[in-house]
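Lecture 7 notes: from sequence to structure.

We start with a single chain of 293 residues. Read the sequence below before looking at the structure.
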Amino acid sequence: YGSDGEVLPLILSSSPVEKSLSGRVGEARTFSVTTKVAEEDEELSYEWRVNGVPADCCSAEFDFVPAFVQRGNCVVECVVQSGVSADVCKWTVAVNAELHVACGGGSANPDGSVERPFASVSDACVAAIEGDTVLVGPGVYRGTLEGPSVTIEIRSTGGPDVTVLDAEGAGRCFLASQNPDVCLSGFTLRNGSMGYGGGAYGGIITNCVISNCLATVGGGAYGALLCDCRIVCCGADSDGGGIADSFAERCVLSECLTAFGGGASYSELENCLVIGNRAEAYFAYKSWNGGAG
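Now the structure, written as tokens:
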């Protein structure tokens, strides 16, 4: 099977051979079987089916063209027969898609294709299924982005310098409470404000900039996994001006302010730079640990 030459070994018996794979809409695949028979000159026949529909192929190798055309499970089967004996090879392919978002450029009937992109990231997330990737074009996207219950990646195409989630002080920028494994990559999160996690609550955050976000706990992020991010100029009334109850790797936390743990509070940091943060009294709170607590 596939470009790596992997095949499913087949011994004619009563036990079917099955395998689960993943694929993308528009991706062509080659499926193949190898066989072991009692006699070298024994004649074999091959019958291929796609989602129960017979395919025009009668050899041990099947080029699936046209490629996967829709998302969801695609079942490819090969029935190999020798005399009265038969065996079945079965591949169940979870077919995912890349859904495109263009800021202000959505069509009247968007489907997430390049030609008919969604106008908002939220609409693309609603349409996404398990394993999809939402590709977001440059622009400023306003309001709160809520991740779906399925595991997907939300990735900008231009990076954080040109792709912004701006909550405009009316809520947090990104919420992943339904599924903590939703990944957000390549955005600037700014002007978020919420009790826990002004910039982000939950989720996997990579290659992002979180700035000018406020919260009671975790000004930049709360309960998140952050990698290769910069958290700057964020603040919290109580704990973790930069982040709280989070894990951060290869991140920069700078110029953040709170009463306890200016850069980070109750968080695990690995290979991070924590610089220029302050712990100062907010309201009735005392102040401890400008860098991390």
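DSSP finds one helix and 34 strands in the chain. Keep this in mind for problem set 3.
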